[in-house]
Amino acid sequence: MLLSSLSRLESIIDAETAALAAHDLREQDEFNRRKSQSLVELARLGRAVDGTQLSPPEIDCLERLRGKLRRNHELLGIQLRAMQEVSDIVSTMIQSAESDGTYSAALRFQE
Question: Whole-model pTM?
Fold first, then answer.
């Protein structure tokens, strides 16, 4: 049961990582929903599983999943930083468009 849940999560992470690497964010909501479901399932199983009694295939899957989660985390961080940069640019452009320049630091230094 645990191994099948871990394998499902691994396939979700693989698909999301591939999409992130391709800069394809169209399915991000679906990936988030599926990861949340998987985490709920693993949390329930985790209460019933003794961590000291994991089988070698379960341990291997957990270690493989850890590496894949690190890569996924890295790509998500890149996407978030890129979105933040775009947001900052748009915000600056809006502020510039709405400003009449009265309180602009750039204008004060030009005087």
Answer: 0.77
The pLDDT tens digits along the chain (111 residues) read 899 999 999 999 999 999 999 999 999 999 999 999 999 999 999 888 887 889 999 999 999 999 999 999 999 999 999 999 999 999 988 888 877 666 655 544 554
Ordered by start, the domain boundaries in the chain are: 2-86
Angle between helices 28-48 and 2-21 (to 10 degrees): 160
14 close to 72: Cβ distance less than 8 angstroms: no
Whole-angstrom distance, CA of residue 34 vs CA of residue 11:
10
Q: Which long-range contacts (CB under 8 A, 24 or more apart) does 79-86 make?
A: 79/20, 79/23, 79/25
